[in-house]
Amino acid sequence: METLIIATRASNLALWQAYHIRERIEVAFPEVKVELNEITSRGDKILDKPLALVGGKGHFTKELEDEMLAGKADLAVHSLKDVPTYIPDGLELCAITERQDQSDVFLSHTYRTLDELPAGAVVGTTSLRRRMQLLEKRPDLKVKDLRGNVNTRLRKLKEGQYDAIILAYIGLKRLDLLKDIPYVEKLGFFIPPMGQAALGIEIVSSNERVREIAMTLNHEETFICTKVERDFISVIGAGCSAPVAVNAVISESDEESESEKKIEARAMIGYPDGTHILHKNLTAPLEDADILGDQLAQAMIEEGALEILKEAEEVAFKDEMPERL
After folding, report:
1. What 3-state class would DSSP assign to 268?
2. Which end of the chain has the smaller Cβ count within 10 Å, N or C?
């Protein structure tokens, strides 16, 4: 029997994802036995400061990639939103699973909705993207850093350290944690980050057998859309922690033939305090998806996106830096 080793982070959500992929592979390839190589990533170890202050990229992927390059794993399962656009030589992001619900979600034990939060209420999130979009809509709120795994964040909310917190819906759904939270509201006006709610399958490029197996996990439309998002991030030069939101979707009209399908990409860049916001939307025929991410980035660069992003990264967490660094 063949053995295939998956490198995965050791968090509950990462393990759920790895077990999910293991099951899919073993069902499709009964001759393959899948084992997990569980690793604690740098991002999981740094819990005393926001990752945006740490610098560098690949906080949740580097150790997994190192295991593959050392021959200790055949593929890695990542939350795609955590995967930098730069992939090390010898490795390849070859498959993307079908994207699920991309929503960000408001959670509270006291207030039913975001609109019900009183002025000055404390909302927990570490994401500069979420902070930006939240404060654009509700500049009267106080945003407080929130680190730790999902269970730790929910415990802090229950203890009353926050009036509300914002997390990704899909992780809570996969771990069946929504039932324990009194008030849950999907934030439809939020633009998600690159790759949210899809899994990225990274392989050792030279291993054709693993490529064959991994490609059975690929969802073509999700691959196309997330490539647009990743192309945009690459051209803009934003790291995973930057205050940048980008999302691409393919039109779903039943009446459209494949040649008539369109792809729409929308993006948002701004300061973490919800000011200096730049929005942009572009639509193109599906056949032009390969250049849409680049076009969207260039259009925003012409409107000052790089200057906004540079300043945004300098002012991010400015109030917290003296005590945290």
Report:
1. strand
2. N
Domain contains 323:
no
Q: Is residue 320 part of a domain?
A: no
Domain span holding position 131:
104-186
User: Would residue 82 show up in a list of annotated catalytic residues for this protein?
Assistant: yes
Return the structure tokens found at 315.
Answer: 């002012």
Are residue 206 and residue 93 in the same domain, yes or no? yes
Point out the catalytic residue in the list 82, 104, 163, 273: 82
Residues 172-221: tens digit of each pLDDT: 999 999 999 999 999 999 999 999 999 999 999 999 999 999 999 999 99
Give the whole-angstrom CA distance, residue 283 versus residue 264. Answer: 4
HSE value, Cβ hemisphere, 13 Å, CA-based, for 259: 0
Determine the Cα–Cα distance for residues 156 and 169; give it in Å rounded to an integer.
18
Whole-number Å distance between alpha carbons of 113 and 85:
35
Per-residue burial over 83-111, b if 16 or more Cβ lie within 10 Å, else e, is: bbbebbeebbbbbbbebeebbbbbbbbeb
Domain assignment of residue 134, yes or no: yes
Question: Strands 278-285 and 262-269: what pairing?
Answer: antiparallel
- 30 is a domain residue: yes
| Cα dist from 210 to 15, 90, 158, 178, whole Å | 20, 14, 43, 35
Least confident of 91-100, 104-113, 247-256: 247-256
Give yes or no for residue 273 having a pLDDT over 90.
yes
Q: Are 94 and 200 in a shared domain?
A: yes
